[in-house]
Amino acid sequence: MKNETGIRQIKIFDTTLRDGEQAPGASLDVEQKIKLAHRLAALGVDTIEPGFPISSPGDFQAVQRISREIQGVEICGFARAVKADIDSAIRATQDAERRRLHMFLSSSNIHLDFQLKKTRAEVVNLAREMVSYAKRFVDEVEFSPMDATRTGDEFLFEVLEAVIEEGATILNIPDTVGFALPEEYGAMFTRVMKGVRGSDRVEFSAHCHNDLGMAVANSLAAIRAGVTHVEVTVNGVGERAGNCSLEELAMALATRGDHFGVTTNIRPEEIYATSQMVSRMMGAPIAFNKPIVGRNAFQHEAGIHQDGLLKNRNTYEIMDPERLGIPRSMIVLGKHSGRHALRHRVAEFGVELNNEQLEQLYTAFKEKADRQKTVHDHELMQLAGQAVDRALEPYTLEEVQIVTGNGAHRVASCKIRNNEAGSTTVYTGGGEGPVEAAVDAIRRAIPEPIEFADLELYSVSAGETSAGEATVTVRLGEALHRGTATNRDILVAAAEAYMAACNRAVREARSAGSQTADKQTVS
After folding, report:
1. Predicted structure pTM score
2. Which terminus, N or C, of the chain has the lesser number of Cβ atoms within 10 Å?
3. Strand (E) or helix (H) holding 235
4. Which of 317-326, 423-432, 450-459 has the lowest mean pLDDT?
Protein backbone atom coordinates (compact mmCIF):
# COMPACT_ATOMS: atom_id res chain seq x y z
CA MET A 1 0.00 0.00 0.00
CA LYS A 2 1.71 3.17 -1.24
CA ASN A 3 0.67 6.82 -1.16
CA GLU A 4 0.73 9.23 -4.10
CA THR A 5 4.48 9.76 -3.70
CA GLY A 6 5.17 6.04 -4.08
CA ILE A 7 6.21 5.62 -0.41
CA ARG A 8 4.72 2.66 1.47
CA GLN A 9 1.95 3.86 3.76
CA ILE A 10 1.61 2.38 7.24
CA LYS A 11 -1.94 2.60 8.58
CA ILE A 12 -2.08 3.47 12.28
CA PHE A 13 -4.81 1.52 14.10
CA ASP A 14 -5.42 3.11 17.50
CA THR A 15 -6.85 0.92 20.25
CA THR A 16 -6.35 3.33 23.17
CA LEU A 17 -10.10 3.35 23.81
CA ARG A 18 -10.36 -0.45 23.78
CA ASP A 19 -7.16 -2.30 24.63
CA GLY A 20 -5.71 0.76 26.36
CA GLU A 21 -8.76 1.10 28.57
CA GLN A 22 -8.29 -2.49 29.74
CA ALA A 23 -5.39 -1.29 31.91
CA PRO A 24 -6.43 -1.47 35.58
CA GLY A 25 -7.99 1.80 36.72
CA ALA A 26 -8.03 3.34 33.22
CA SER A 27 -11.80 3.13 32.66
CA LEU A 28 -13.33 5.98 30.65
CA ASP A 29 -16.91 7.21 30.56
CA VAL A 30 -18.80 7.84 27.32
CA GLU A 31 -18.05 11.56 27.11
CA GLN A 32 -14.35 11.01 27.77
CA LYS A 33 -14.19 8.43 24.99
CA ILE A 34 -15.85 10.80 22.55
CA LYS A 35 -13.47 13.64 23.41
CA LEU A 36 -10.48 11.35 23.01
CA ALA A 37 -11.82 10.00 19.71
CA HIS A 38 -11.97 13.53 18.31
CA ARG A 39 -8.41 14.12 19.50
CA LEU A 40 -7.24 10.86 17.89
CA ALA A 41 -8.85 11.93 14.62
CA ALA A 42 -7.00 15.25 14.84
CA LEU A 43 -3.79 13.31 15.49
CA GLY A 44 -4.21 11.56 12.15
CA VAL A 45 -4.83 7.91 13.07
CA ASP A 46 -6.39 5.85 10.28
CA THR A 47 -8.54 3.55 12.40
CA ILE A 48 -10.09 3.97 15.86
CA GLU A 49 -11.19 0.99 17.93
CA PRO A 50 -13.47 2.79 20.42
CA GLY A 51 -14.36 -0.14 22.66
CA PHE A 52 -15.88 -3.57 23.09
CA PRO A 53 -19.59 -2.94 22.33
CA ILE A 54 -21.05 -6.02 24.02
CA SER A 55 -19.06 -5.52 27.22
CA SER A 56 -21.36 -2.82 28.64
CA PRO A 57 -24.16 -0.42 27.64
CA GLY A 58 -21.69 2.45 28.08
CA ASP A 59 -19.18 0.93 25.68
CA PHE A 60 -21.93 0.25 23.12
CA GLN A 61 -23.10 3.85 23.39
CA ALA A 62 -19.56 5.20 23.05
CA VAL A 63 -18.84 3.15 19.93
CA GLN A 64 -22.20 4.12 18.44
CA ARG A 65 -21.77 7.86 19.06
CA ILE A 66 -18.18 7.86 17.84
CA SER A 67 -19.30 6.05 14.69
CA ARG A 68 -21.84 8.80 14.08
CA GLU A 69 -19.67 11.79 15.00
CA ILE A 70 -16.18 11.05 13.70
CA GLN A 71 -15.69 11.52 9.98
CA GLY A 72 -12.71 10.63 7.82
CA VAL A 73 -11.54 7.82 10.12
CA GLU A 74 -12.36 4.13 9.97
CA ILE A 75 -14.25 2.90 13.06
CA CYS A 76 -13.62 -0.66 14.23
CA GLY A 77 -16.01 -2.77 16.28
CA PHE A 78 -14.38 -5.41 18.50
CA ALA A 79 -15.85 -8.87 19.06
CA ARG A 80 -15.11 -12.38 20.19
CA ALA A 81 -15.92 -15.18 17.76
CA VAL A 82 -19.46 -15.19 19.13
CA LYS A 83 -22.59 -14.21 17.19
CA ALA A 84 -23.91 -11.96 19.97
CA ASP A 85 -20.61 -10.05 20.04
CA ILE A 86 -20.59 -9.67 16.27
CA ASP A 87 -24.21 -8.49 16.23
CA SER A 88 -23.47 -5.90 18.91
CA ALA A 89 -20.36 -4.60 17.10
CA ILE A 90 -22.23 -4.41 13.79
CA ARG A 91 -25.11 -2.46 15.34
CA ALA A 92 -22.78 -0.08 17.18
CA THR A 93 -20.81 0.81 14.05
CA GLN A 94 -23.62 0.79 11.49
CA ASP A 95 -23.60 4.60 11.10
CA ALA A 96 -19.84 4.90 10.57
CA GLU A 97 -18.59 6.49 7.37
CA ARG A 98 -16.13 3.56 7.11
CA ARG A 99 -16.07 0.58 9.42
CA ARG A 100 -14.31 -2.66 10.20
CA LEU A 101 -15.12 -5.65 12.37
CA HIS A 102 -12.23 -6.98 14.46
CA MET A 103 -12.77 -10.56 15.64
CA PHE A 104 -10.40 -12.56 17.84
CA LEU A 105 -10.13 -16.23 18.76
CA SER A 106 -7.39 -17.97 20.74
CA SER A 107 -5.01 -20.24 18.85
CA SER A 108 -2.19 -21.34 21.18
CA ASN A 109 -2.31 -24.72 22.92
CA ILE A 110 -2.22 -23.15 26.38
CA HIS A 111 -5.25 -21.01 25.57
CA LEU A 112 -7.14 -23.85 23.91
CA ASP A 113 -6.47 -26.28 26.75
CA PHE A 114 -7.05 -24.03 29.76
CA GLN A 115 -9.32 -21.22 28.54
CA LEU A 116 -11.41 -22.24 25.54
CA LYS A 117 -11.51 -25.97 26.33
CA LYS A 118 -11.70 -26.68 22.58
CA THR A 119 -9.79 -28.82 20.12
CA ARG A 120 -7.91 -27.37 17.19
CA ALA A 121 -10.54 -28.70 14.78
CA GLU A 122 -13.28 -26.98 16.77
CA VAL A 123 -11.37 -23.69 16.70
CA VAL A 124 -10.89 -23.83 12.92
CA ASN A 125 -14.58 -24.57 12.39
CA LEU A 126 -15.61 -21.76 14.74
CA ALA A 127 -13.28 -19.30 13.01
CA ARG A 128 -14.75 -20.23 9.64
CA GLU A 129 -18.34 -19.96 10.85
CA MET A 130 -17.95 -16.58 12.57
CA VAL A 131 -15.96 -14.91 9.77
CA SER A 132 -18.54 -16.12 7.27
CA TYR A 133 -21.30 -14.76 9.52
CA ALA A 134 -19.60 -11.36 9.91
CA LYS A 135 -19.14 -11.02 6.14
CA ARG A 136 -22.92 -10.88 5.74
CA PHE A 137 -22.87 -7.43 7.34
CA VAL A 138 -19.49 -5.79 6.77
CA ASP A 139 -16.90 -5.86 4.03
CA GLU A 140 -13.77 -5.35 6.14
CA VAL A 141 -13.25 -8.23 8.57
CA GLU A 142 -10.05 -8.39 10.59
CA PHE A 143 -9.23 -11.70 12.25
CA SER A 144 -6.79 -12.10 15.16
CA PRO A 145 -5.53 -15.53 16.29
CA MET A 146 -4.91 -14.59 19.92
CA ASP A 147 -1.52 -15.59 21.35
CA ALA A 148 -0.25 -16.22 17.82
CA THR A 149 3.41 -16.00 18.79
CA ARG A 150 3.02 -19.10 20.98
CA THR A 151 0.86 -21.04 18.51
CA GLY A 152 3.30 -22.68 16.11
CA ASP A 153 3.34 -22.34 12.33
CA GLU A 154 1.37 -25.44 11.40
CA PHE A 155 -1.83 -24.58 13.25
CA LEU A 156 -1.43 -20.81 12.74
CA PHE A 157 -1.27 -21.36 8.97
CA GLU A 158 -4.33 -23.62 9.09
CA VAL A 159 -6.42 -21.04 10.94
CA LEU A 160 -5.32 -18.16 8.72
CA GLU A 161 -6.02 -20.10 5.50
CA ALA A 162 -9.49 -20.97 6.82
CA VAL A 163 -10.49 -17.36 7.57
CA ILE A 164 -9.08 -16.13 4.25
CA GLU A 165 -11.30 -18.64 2.46
CA GLU A 166 -14.31 -17.27 4.36
CA GLY A 167 -13.57 -13.66 3.39
CA ALA A 168 -11.32 -12.13 6.08
CA THR A 169 -9.58 -9.10 4.58
CA ILE A 170 -7.03 -8.24 7.28
CA LEU A 171 -4.98 -10.74 9.28
CA ASN A 172 -3.72 -9.43 12.58
CA ILE A 173 -1.05 -11.68 14.07
CA PRO A 174 -0.74 -10.49 17.67
CA ASP A 175 2.03 -10.94 20.21
CA THR A 176 -0.65 -11.04 22.89
CA VAL A 177 1.63 -11.70 25.85
CA GLY A 178 4.74 -9.79 24.71
CA PHE A 179 6.70 -13.01 24.26
CA ALA A 180 8.39 -12.56 20.87
CA LEU A 181 11.80 -11.13 20.06
CA PRO A 182 11.98 -8.69 17.12
CA GLU A 183 13.79 -11.11 14.82
CA GLU A 184 11.23 -13.82 15.66
CA TYR A 185 8.22 -11.59 15.13
CA GLY A 186 9.39 -10.22 11.80
CA ALA A 187 10.35 -13.71 10.59
CA MET A 188 6.89 -15.02 11.52
CA PHE A 189 5.24 -12.52 9.20
CA THR A 190 7.68 -13.42 6.45
CA ARG A 191 6.81 -17.10 6.79
CA VAL A 192 3.07 -16.39 6.88
CA MET A 193 3.16 -14.17 3.81
CA LYS A 194 5.09 -16.83 1.88
CA GLY A 195 3.45 -19.97 3.27
CA VAL A 196 -0.23 -19.17 3.82
CA ARG A 197 -2.41 -19.77 0.77
CA GLY A 198 -4.33 -16.65 -0.20
CA SER A 199 -2.03 -14.30 1.73
CA ASP A 200 -1.63 -12.19 -1.41
CA ARG A 201 -5.35 -11.31 -1.19
CA VAL A 202 -5.25 -9.85 2.34
CA GLU A 203 -3.46 -7.18 4.32
CA PHE A 204 -1.47 -7.81 7.49
CA SER A 205 -1.52 -6.05 10.84
CA ALA A 206 0.77 -6.18 13.89
CA HIS A 207 -0.43 -5.94 17.50
CA CYS A 208 2.29 -6.09 20.15
CA HIS A 209 2.30 -6.03 23.94
CA ASN A 210 5.18 -4.67 25.96
CA ASP A 211 5.78 -7.31 28.64
CA LEU A 212 9.50 -7.54 27.78
CA GLY A 213 9.78 -3.91 26.65
CA MET A 214 9.89 -4.82 22.96
CA ALA A 215 6.46 -3.83 21.63
CA VAL A 216 7.81 -0.98 19.52
CA ALA A 217 10.82 -2.98 18.32
CA ASN A 218 8.57 -5.91 17.38
CA SER A 219 6.17 -3.61 15.52
CA LEU A 220 9.09 -2.11 13.58
CA ALA A 221 10.25 -5.62 12.72
CA ALA A 222 6.76 -6.38 11.40
CA ILE A 223 6.87 -3.25 9.25
CA ARG A 224 10.18 -4.36 7.78
CA ALA A 225 8.54 -7.71 7.02
CA GLY A 226 5.78 -6.00 5.06
CA VAL A 227 2.75 -5.35 7.29
CA THR A 228 0.62 -2.34 6.36
CA HIS A 229 -1.31 -1.86 9.62
CA VAL A 230 0.11 -1.43 13.13
CA GLU A 231 -2.06 -1.42 16.25
CA VAL A 232 -0.99 1.02 18.95
CA THR A 233 -2.10 3.00 22.00
CA VAL A 234 -1.25 6.52 23.10
CA ASN A 235 1.43 6.48 25.81
CA GLY A 236 1.61 2.70 25.34
CA VAL A 237 -1.28 2.19 27.78
CA GLY A 238 -2.90 -1.21 28.01
CA GLU A 239 -3.09 -4.45 29.93
CA ARG A 240 -0.09 -5.44 32.06
CA ALA A 241 2.92 -3.51 30.67
CA GLY A 242 0.83 -2.00 27.88
CA ASN A 243 0.84 -1.94 24.10
CA CYS A 244 3.04 -0.58 21.36
CA SER A 245 3.33 3.17 21.96
CA LEU A 246 1.82 5.26 19.17
CA GLU A 247 4.17 8.20 19.67
CA GLU A 248 7.30 6.06 19.87
CA LEU A 249 6.44 4.10 16.74
CA ALA A 250 5.41 7.19 14.75
CA MET A 251 8.54 9.15 15.65
CA ALA A 252 10.83 6.17 15.07
CA LEU A 253 9.43 5.96 11.54
CA ALA A 254 9.64 9.74 11.06
CA THR A 255 13.12 10.16 12.52
CA ARG A 256 14.60 7.09 10.84
CA GLY A 257 12.74 7.36 7.56
CA ASP A 258 16.06 6.75 5.82
CA HIS A 259 16.03 3.22 7.24
CA PHE A 260 12.38 2.22 6.98
CA GLY A 261 11.26 4.06 3.85
CA VAL A 262 7.64 4.28 5.01
CA THR A 263 5.30 7.03 6.12
CA THR A 264 2.19 7.51 8.29
CA ASN A 265 -0.63 10.06 8.50
CA ILE A 266 0.26 10.99 12.08
CA ARG A 267 0.55 14.75 12.67
CA PRO A 268 3.51 15.13 15.06
CA GLU A 269 2.35 18.53 16.32
CA GLU A 270 -0.71 16.84 17.88
CA ILE A 271 1.24 14.17 19.78
CA TYR A 272 1.89 15.98 23.05
CA ALA A 273 -1.65 17.31 23.51
CA THR A 274 -3.08 13.86 22.82
CA SER A 275 -0.64 12.23 25.24
CA GLN A 276 -1.53 14.69 27.99
CA MET A 277 -5.28 14.19 27.47
CA VAL A 278 -4.98 10.40 27.67
CA SER A 279 -2.83 10.65 30.79
CA ARG A 280 -5.30 12.96 32.54
CA MET A 281 -8.46 11.10 31.59
CA MET A 282 -7.08 7.66 32.43
CA GLY A 283 -5.35 8.85 35.58
CA ALA A 284 -2.13 7.29 34.28
CA PRO A 285 0.94 9.46 34.96
CA ILE A 286 3.61 9.45 32.27
CA ALA A 287 7.03 8.22 33.42
CA PHE A 288 9.59 11.02 33.49
CA ASN A 289 11.91 9.06 31.18
CA LYS A 290 9.15 7.98 28.76
CA PRO A 291 10.44 8.48 25.19
CA ILE A 292 8.92 11.35 23.20
CA VAL A 293 6.38 12.59 25.79
CA GLY A 294 8.08 12.04 29.18
CA ARG A 295 9.03 15.13 31.16
CA ASN A 296 12.74 14.42 30.83
CA ALA A 297 12.66 13.44 27.13
CA PHE A 298 13.89 16.87 26.03
CA GLN A 299 15.40 18.21 29.26
CA HIS A 300 19.07 18.35 30.14
CA GLU A 301 20.84 19.05 33.43
CA ALA A 302 24.47 18.13 32.72
CA GLY A 303 26.53 21.27 32.08
CA ILE A 304 28.30 19.76 29.06
CA HIS A 305 24.96 18.89 27.44
CA GLN A 306 23.48 22.28 28.28
CA ASP A 307 26.45 24.07 26.74
CA GLY A 308 26.17 21.99 23.56
CA LEU A 309 22.42 22.55 23.26
CA LEU A 310 22.75 26.29 23.67
CA LYS A 311 25.21 26.31 20.79
CA ASN A 312 23.34 23.89 18.54
CA ARG A 313 20.24 21.87 19.46
CA ASN A 314 21.30 18.96 17.27
CA THR A 315 24.28 18.20 19.51
CA TYR A 316 22.08 16.22 21.90
CA GLU A 317 18.57 16.13 20.41
CA ILE A 318 17.49 14.04 17.42
CA MET A 319 13.95 15.49 17.36
CA ASP A 320 12.56 19.00 17.70
CA PRO A 321 10.18 18.98 20.71
CA GLU A 322 8.29 22.02 19.43
CA ARG A 323 7.43 20.04 16.29
CA LEU A 324 5.68 17.58 18.61
CA GLY A 325 3.73 20.31 20.37
CA ILE A 326 5.96 20.04 23.46
CA PRO A 327 6.75 23.33 25.25
CA ARG A 328 10.48 23.94 25.04
CA SER A 329 12.16 23.77 28.46
CA MET A 330 15.27 21.83 27.58
CA ILE A 331 17.51 23.21 30.33
CA VAL A 332 16.83 21.77 33.80
CA LEU A 333 18.82 23.52 36.46
CA GLY A 334 20.44 21.29 39.07
CA LYS A 335 23.78 20.79 40.74
CA HIS A 336 25.34 19.69 37.43
CA SER A 337 24.43 22.94 35.65
CA GLY A 338 27.07 25.53 34.81
CA ARG A 339 27.36 29.31 34.54
CA HIS A 340 26.50 29.34 30.85
CA ALA A 341 23.11 27.74 31.49
CA LEU A 342 22.39 30.10 34.41
CA ARG A 343 23.18 33.20 32.38
CA HIS A 344 21.09 31.89 29.49
CA ARG A 345 18.06 31.06 31.65
CA VAL A 346 17.89 34.41 33.45
CA ALA A 347 18.40 36.17 30.10
CA GLU A 348 15.25 34.39 28.86
CA PHE A 349 13.42 36.32 31.58
CA GLY A 350 14.93 39.60 30.43
CA VAL A 351 17.63 39.80 33.12
CA GLU A 352 21.19 40.64 32.12
CA LEU A 353 23.89 39.92 34.72
CA ASN A 354 27.39 41.31 34.91
CA ASN A 355 30.20 38.94 35.90
CA GLU A 356 30.03 39.86 39.58
CA GLN A 357 26.26 39.30 39.71
CA LEU A 358 26.63 36.02 37.84
CA GLU A 359 29.20 34.77 40.37
CA GLN A 360 26.92 35.75 43.26
CA LEU A 361 24.01 33.93 41.60
CA TYR A 362 26.17 30.90 40.79
CA THR A 363 27.33 30.54 44.42
CA ALA A 364 23.79 30.83 45.82
CA PHE A 365 22.48 28.51 43.13
CA LYS A 366 25.01 25.77 43.90
CA GLU A 367 24.19 25.92 47.61
CA LYS A 368 20.49 25.54 46.87
CA ALA A 369 21.03 22.84 44.22
CA ASP A 370 22.98 20.74 46.73
CA ARG A 371 19.94 20.74 49.04
CA GLN A 372 17.31 19.80 46.47
CA LYS A 373 17.16 17.89 43.21
CA THR A 374 16.12 20.75 40.91
CA VAL A 375 16.10 24.54 41.15
CA HIS A 376 12.86 25.70 39.56
CA ASP A 377 12.49 28.90 37.57
CA HIS A 378 10.71 30.89 40.26
CA GLU A 379 13.47 29.95 42.73
CA LEU A 380 16.11 30.97 40.23
CA MET A 381 14.36 34.31 39.78
CA GLN A 382 14.40 34.84 43.54
CA LEU A 383 18.15 34.16 43.62
CA ALA A 384 18.75 36.37 40.60
CA GLY A 385 16.68 39.09 42.26
CA GLN A 386 19.00 38.97 45.26
CA ALA A 387 22.00 39.31 42.92
CA VAL A 388 20.58 42.43 41.21
CA ASP A 389 18.94 43.71 44.42
CA ARG A 390 15.38 43.92 43.09
CA ALA A 391 12.34 41.66 42.79
CA LEU A 392 12.08 40.16 39.31
CA GLU A 393 8.69 38.47 39.53
CA PRO A 394 5.40 40.42 39.39
CA TYR A 395 4.14 38.71 42.55
CA THR A 396 5.66 36.89 45.52
CA LEU A 397 3.71 34.31 47.52
CA GLU A 398 5.01 35.05 51.01
CA GLU A 399 2.76 32.82 53.12
CA VAL A 400 0.13 30.11 52.62
CA GLN A 401 -2.32 28.75 55.18
CA ILE A 402 -4.91 26.15 54.23
CA VAL A 403 -7.64 24.82 56.51
CA THR A 404 -8.60 21.33 55.41
CA GLY A 405 -10.37 18.31 56.80
CA ASN A 406 -13.19 15.93 55.99
CA GLY A 407 -15.87 18.62 55.83
CA ALA A 408 -17.45 19.94 52.65
CA HIS A 409 -15.49 23.21 52.38
CA ARG A 410 -11.83 24.23 52.55
CA VAL A 411 -10.43 27.70 53.17
CA ALA A 412 -7.05 29.16 52.17
CA SER A 413 -5.33 32.36 53.15
CA CYS A 414 -2.45 33.63 51.00
CA LYS A 415 -0.19 36.57 51.77
CA ILE A 416 0.93 37.96 48.41
CA ARG A 417 3.29 40.83 47.64
CA ASN A 418 2.70 42.90 44.51
CA ASN A 419 6.33 43.69 43.72
CA GLU A 420 5.52 46.38 41.18
CA ALA A 421 3.19 48.26 43.53
CA GLY A 422 5.31 47.54 46.60
CA SER A 423 2.28 46.41 48.61
CA THR A 424 1.41 43.22 50.49
CA THR A 425 -2.15 41.92 50.87
CA VAL A 426 -3.76 38.86 52.44
CA TYR A 427 -6.31 37.14 50.18
CA THR A 428 -8.81 34.47 51.24
CA GLY A 429 -10.33 31.82 49.01
CA GLY A 430 -12.48 28.74 49.32
CA GLY A 431 -13.35 25.55 47.50
CA GLU A 432 -14.36 21.94 47.82
CA GLY A 433 -10.69 20.93 47.84
CA PRO A 434 -7.60 22.54 49.41
CA VAL A 435 -5.88 23.19 46.06
CA GLU A 436 -9.06 24.80 44.73
CA ALA A 437 -9.16 27.04 47.80
CA ALA A 438 -5.52 28.12 47.41
CA VAL A 439 -5.98 28.80 43.69
CA ASP A 440 -9.08 30.87 44.46
CA ALA A 441 -7.13 32.99 46.94
CA ILE A 442 -4.17 33.60 44.63
CA ARG A 443 -6.43 34.36 41.66
CA ARG A 444 -7.90 37.29 43.59
CA ALA A 445 -4.50 39.00 43.59
CA ILE A 446 -4.02 38.92 39.82
CA PRO A 447 -6.14 41.08 37.49
CA GLU A 448 -5.33 39.09 34.33
CA PRO A 449 -7.99 36.47 33.37
CA ILE A 450 -5.81 33.42 34.04
CA GLU A 451 -7.47 29.99 33.83
CA PHE A 452 -6.32 26.93 35.78
CA ALA A 453 -5.63 24.17 33.21
CA ASP A 454 -3.86 21.21 34.83
CA LEU A 455 -2.14 19.92 37.97
CA GLU A 456 0.42 17.13 38.27
CA LEU A 457 1.61 15.89 41.67
CA TYR A 458 4.64 13.66 42.32
CA SER A 459 6.58 12.36 45.27
CA VAL A 460 10.26 13.17 44.86
CA SER A 461 11.57 11.40 47.97
CA ALA A 462 10.53 8.74 50.47
CA GLY A 463 9.94 8.48 54.20
CA GLU A 464 8.42 10.78 56.76
CA THR A 465 10.51 13.71 55.51
CA SER A 466 9.50 13.18 51.89
CA ALA A 467 8.82 16.13 49.60
CA GLY A 468 6.23 16.53 46.88
CA GLU A 469 6.57 18.22 43.53
CA ALA A 470 3.67 20.02 41.87
CA THR A 471 3.48 21.21 38.27
CA VAL A 472 0.63 23.54 37.37
CA THR A 473 -0.40 24.63 33.89
CA VAL A 474 -2.44 27.80 33.39
CA ARG A 475 -3.94 29.40 30.31
CA LEU A 476 -3.94 33.10 29.45
CA GLY A 477 -5.61 33.71 26.13
CA GLU A 478 -4.40 30.96 23.81
CA ALA A 479 -1.05 30.49 25.54
CA LEU A 480 -0.24 27.83 28.15
CA HIS A 481 2.24 28.50 30.95
CA ARG A 482 3.71 26.05 33.46
CA GLY A 483 5.12 26.45 36.93
CA THR A 484 6.78 23.82 39.15
CA ALA A 485 7.53 23.83 42.87
CA THR A 486 8.78 21.37 45.49
CA ASN A 487 7.84 21.44 49.16
CA ARG A 488 7.50 19.11 52.16
CA ASP A 489 3.84 20.19 52.17
CA ILE A 490 2.32 19.11 48.86
CA LEU A 491 -0.49 21.67 49.17
CA VAL A 492 2.04 24.46 49.56
CA ALA A 493 3.93 23.07 46.56
CA ALA A 494 0.73 23.26 44.50
CA ALA A 495 0.12 26.87 45.59
CA GLU A 496 3.72 27.86 44.82
CA ALA A 497 3.56 26.14 41.43
CA TYR A 498 0.35 27.97 40.60
CA MET A 499 1.92 31.26 41.62
CA ALA A 500 4.96 30.50 39.46
CA ALA A 501 2.76 29.68 36.45
CA CYS A 502 0.76 32.88 36.95
CA ASN A 503 3.92 34.96 37.20
CA ARG A 504 5.17 33.50 33.94
CA ALA A 505 1.83 34.16 32.24
CA VAL A 506 1.69 37.76 33.46
CA ARG A 507 5.33 38.45 32.60
CA GLU A 508 5.06 37.07 29.06
CA ALA A 509 1.72 38.75 28.39
CA ARG A 510 3.07 42.13 29.51
CA SER A 511 6.23 41.64 27.49
CA ALA A 512 4.21 40.83 24.37
CA GLY A 513 1.99 43.87 24.99
CA SER A 514 5.04 46.11 25.38
CA GLN A 515 6.51 44.85 22.11
CA THR A 516 3.20 45.49 20.32
CA ALA A 517 3.05 49.03 21.71
CA ASP A 518 6.64 49.68 20.58
CA LYS A 519 5.80 48.53 17.03
CA GLN A 520 2.73 50.78 16.93
CA THR A 521 4.82 53.74 18.12
CA VAL A 522 7.41 53.12 15.41
CA SER A 523 4.78 52.79 12.68
Report:
1. 0.81
2. C
3. none
4. 317-326
